[in-house]
Design brief:
The protein contains no helices and four strands. The chain is mainly beta. The strands form two sheets. Strands 1-4 form a two-stranded antiparallel sheet. The protein has a two-stranded antiparallel sheet with strand order 2-3.
Length: 82
Amino acid sequence: MTKPVIAAKTPAKIELEEGKKYFWCRCGLSKKQPFCDGSHSDTEFTPLAFTAEKSGPAFLCQCKRSAKAPFCDGTHSRLDDE
């Protein structure tokens, strides 16, 4: 597996909590998208740890191609069917 699986071509709207640490799924295999559930264990991928800078809604990437990971940058709208 050289590319992550596209979990969805839409972002996930998530309520983040300031100061809380999250683990965003990079492989696309997690059943708890957009967060890691350990499904990457047989891949070269590891989750991206991040701490929320503020509380409130955030749009997290689920296509796994965002240049601003873990946040959505709209890349999903330009993806061909993979």
